[in-house]
Description:
By secondary structure, the protein is mainly alpha-helical.
Amino acid sequence: MFDRDYTITGxxxxxxxxxxxxxxxxxxxxxPKSSAKLLERYIDVYMNAxxxxxxxSKRAPKDTDSKDxxxxxxxxxxxxxxxxxxxxxxxxxxxESVELTPSERVDRAFRYDxxxxxxxxxxxxxxxxxxxxxxxxELMYEQFTDGCINRIDYMERVYEVMxxxxxxxxxFSYDEALAKxxx
Length: 183
Protein backbone atom coordinates (compact mmCIF):
# COMPACT_ATOMS: atom_id res chain seq x y z
CA MET A 1 0.00 0.00 0.00
CA PHE A 2 1.43 3.37 -1.10
CA ASP A 3 4.64 1.73 -2.27
CA ARG A 4 4.52 2.34 -6.04
CA ASP A 5 3.80 5.15 -8.47
CA TYR A 6 0.18 6.19 -8.93
CA THR A 7 -1.04 7.94 -12.07
CA ILE A 8 -4.04 10.23 -11.99
CA THR A 9 -5.67 10.69 -15.37
CA GLY A 10 -8.06 12.99 -17.16
CA UNK A 11 -9.59 16.04 -15.57
CA UNK A 12 -8.36 14.95 -12.14
CA UNK A 13 -4.76 15.23 -13.37
CA UNK A 14 -5.54 18.72 -14.65
CA UNK A 15 -7.03 19.64 -11.27
CA UNK A 16 -4.01 18.24 -9.42
CA UNK A 17 -1.62 20.26 -11.59
CA UNK A 18 -3.74 23.37 -11.10
CA UNK A 19 -3.51 23.08 -7.31
CA UNK A 20 0.19 22.15 -6.97
CA UNK A 21 3.27 24.36 -7.12
CA UNK A 22 5.95 21.74 -7.65
CA UNK A 23 5.95 19.77 -10.87
CA UNK A 24 3.75 22.29 -12.65
CA UNK A 25 5.65 24.38 -15.13
CA UNK A 26 4.00 27.50 -16.50
CA UNK A 27 5.49 26.87 -19.94
CA UNK A 28 3.90 23.44 -20.36
CA UNK A 29 0.91 23.42 -22.68
CA UNK A 30 -1.24 21.23 -20.42
CA UNK A 31 -0.88 23.39 -17.28
CA PRO A 32 -3.21 26.36 -16.97
CA LYS A 33 -1.39 29.71 -16.98
CA SER A 34 -3.27 30.87 -13.90
CA SER A 35 -2.73 27.85 -11.65
CA ALA A 36 -3.74 28.26 -8.02
CA LYS A 37 -0.53 26.62 -6.79
CA LEU A 38 -1.90 26.30 -3.27
CA LEU A 39 0.08 23.29 -2.10
CA GLU A 40 3.73 22.52 -2.73
CA ARG A 41 3.68 18.98 -4.12
CA TYR A 42 1.30 16.60 -5.85
CA ILE A 43 1.34 14.37 -2.78
CA ASP A 44 0.19 17.32 -0.65
CA VAL A 45 -2.76 17.94 -2.96
CA TYR A 46 -3.51 14.19 -3.02
CA MET A 47 -3.62 13.93 0.78
CA ASN A 48 -5.76 17.05 1.13
CA ALA A 49 -8.11 15.78 -1.57
CA UNK A 50 -8.66 12.57 0.40
CA UNK A 51 -9.72 14.66 3.40
CA UNK A 52 -12.04 16.84 1.31
CA UNK A 53 -13.55 13.80 -0.35
CA UNK A 54 -14.42 11.99 2.88
CA UNK A 55 -15.54 15.13 4.73
CA UNK A 56 -17.96 16.08 1.98
CA SER A 57 -18.83 12.48 0.97
CA LYS A 58 -17.70 13.16 -2.58
CA ARG A 59 -16.46 10.31 -4.75
CA ALA A 60 -15.63 10.38 -8.44
CA PRO A 61 -14.86 7.66 -10.98
CA LYS A 62 -11.70 7.68 -13.10
CA ASP A 63 -11.85 10.12 -15.97
CA THR A 64 -10.51 8.68 -19.19
CA ASP A 65 -11.92 11.31 -21.58
CA SER A 66 -8.81 13.46 -21.43
CA LYS A 67 -5.22 12.44 -22.16
CA ASP A 68 -3.84 14.51 -19.27
CA UNK A 69 -1.81 12.58 -16.71
CA UNK A 70 -0.09 13.34 -13.43
CA UNK A 71 2.06 10.88 -11.55
CA UNK A 72 2.73 10.65 -7.85
CA UNK A 73 6.01 8.81 -7.52
CA UNK A 74 6.78 6.07 -5.02
CA UNK A 75 9.42 8.23 -3.34
CA UNK A 76 6.74 10.85 -2.55
CA UNK A 77 4.61 8.10 -1.00
CA UNK A 78 7.66 6.89 0.88
CA UNK A 79 8.21 10.32 2.40
CA UNK A 80 4.53 10.60 3.38
CA UNK A 81 3.77 6.91 3.95
CA UNK A 82 2.55 7.28 7.53
CA UNK A 83 0.24 10.16 6.60
CA UNK A 84 -1.15 8.38 3.53
CA UNK A 85 -1.72 5.20 5.51
CA UNK A 86 -3.45 7.16 8.29
CA UNK A 87 -5.73 8.86 5.75
CA UNK A 88 -6.52 5.55 4.07
CA UNK A 89 -7.47 3.96 7.39
CA UNK A 90 -9.55 6.98 8.37
CA UNK A 91 -11.43 6.91 5.05
CA UNK A 92 -12.09 3.17 5.43
CA UNK A 93 -13.46 3.72 8.93
CA UNK A 94 -15.63 6.72 8.03
CA UNK A 95 -16.91 5.65 4.59
CA GLU A 96 -20.64 5.03 4.71
CA SER A 97 -21.17 4.09 1.05
CA VAL A 98 -21.87 0.52 2.14
CA GLU A 99 -23.45 -0.65 5.35
CA LEU A 100 -20.86 -2.41 7.48
CA THR A 101 -20.65 -3.38 11.12
CA PRO A 102 -17.99 -1.65 13.19
CA SER A 103 -15.96 -4.87 13.14
CA GLU A 104 -16.12 -5.03 9.34
CA ARG A 105 -15.00 -1.39 9.14
CA VAL A 106 -12.01 -2.15 11.34
CA ASP A 107 -11.15 -5.19 9.22
CA ARG A 108 -11.37 -3.11 6.06
CA ALA A 109 -9.22 -0.36 7.54
CA PHE A 110 -6.55 -2.43 9.30
CA ARG A 111 -6.54 -6.03 8.13
CA TYR A 112 -7.29 -6.36 4.43
CA ASP A 113 -4.03 -4.78 3.30
CA UNK A 114 -1.94 -7.19 5.39
CA UNK A 115 -3.93 -10.39 4.73
CA UNK A 116 -2.89 -12.12 1.49
CA UNK A 117 -6.28 -13.88 1.26
CA UNK A 118 -7.99 -10.45 1.20
CA UNK A 119 -5.91 -9.06 -1.66
CA UNK A 120 -8.94 -8.43 -3.91
CA UNK A 121 -10.84 -6.68 -1.10
CA UNK A 122 -7.76 -4.56 -0.37
CA UNK A 123 -7.62 -3.49 -4.03
CA UNK A 124 -11.32 -2.55 -3.90
CA UNK A 125 -10.65 -0.52 -0.75
CA UNK A 126 -7.76 1.28 -2.43
CA UNK A 127 -9.99 2.10 -5.40
CA UNK A 128 -12.63 3.43 -2.97
CA UNK A 129 -9.94 5.59 -1.38
CA UNK A 130 -8.93 6.92 -4.80
CA UNK A 131 -12.58 7.67 -5.60
CA UNK A 132 -12.59 9.95 -2.54
CA UNK A 133 -9.30 11.52 -3.66
CA UNK A 134 -10.76 12.26 -7.10
CA UNK A 135 -13.96 13.60 -5.52
CA UNK A 136 -11.86 15.82 -3.26
CA UNK A 137 -9.87 17.07 -6.24
CA GLU A 138 -13.11 18.08 -7.93
CA LEU A 139 -14.29 19.93 -4.83
CA MET A 140 -10.97 21.70 -4.34
CA TYR A 141 -10.79 22.71 -7.99
CA GLU A 142 -14.35 24.10 -7.88
CA GLN A 143 -13.53 26.11 -4.78
CA PHE A 144 -10.43 27.68 -6.28
CA THR A 145 -11.58 28.43 -9.81
CA ASP A 146 -14.84 30.24 -9.21
CA GLY A 147 -14.00 33.95 -9.35
CA CYS A 148 -10.27 33.57 -8.72
CA ILE A 149 -7.90 35.24 -11.16
CA ASN A 150 -4.68 36.05 -9.32
CA ARG A 151 -2.68 35.03 -6.26
CA ILE A 152 -4.52 37.45 -3.96
CA ASP A 153 -7.87 35.96 -5.04
CA TYR A 154 -6.57 32.46 -4.28
CA MET A 155 -5.33 33.48 -0.83
CA GLU A 156 -8.62 35.18 -0.03
CA ARG A 157 -10.43 32.04 -1.13
CA VAL A 158 -8.20 29.91 1.11
CA TYR A 159 -9.17 32.14 4.02
CA GLU A 160 -12.88 31.86 3.14
CA VAL A 161 -12.69 28.09 2.79
CA MET A 162 -10.87 27.68 6.10
CA UNK A 163 -13.34 29.95 7.89
CA UNK A 164 -16.29 28.04 6.42
CA UNK A 165 -14.65 24.74 7.29
CA UNK A 166 -14.13 25.86 10.88
CA UNK A 167 -17.75 26.93 11.21
CA UNK A 168 -19.12 23.77 9.61
CA UNK A 169 -17.16 21.46 11.84
CA UNK A 170 -17.04 23.44 15.05
CA UNK A 171 -18.30 21.27 17.81
CA PHE A 172 -18.12 18.09 15.75
CA SER A 173 -15.89 15.57 17.47
CA TYR A 174 -14.14 12.99 15.31
CA ASP A 175 -13.07 11.26 18.51
CA GLU A 176 -16.74 10.73 19.43
CA ALA A 177 -17.58 9.51 15.94
CA LEU A 178 -14.68 7.03 15.95
CA ALA A 179 -15.54 5.90 19.51
CA LYS A 180 -19.12 5.28 18.39
CA UNK A 181 -17.88 3.12 15.49
CA UNK A 182 -15.65 1.13 17.82
CA UNK A 183 -18.49 0.19 20.23
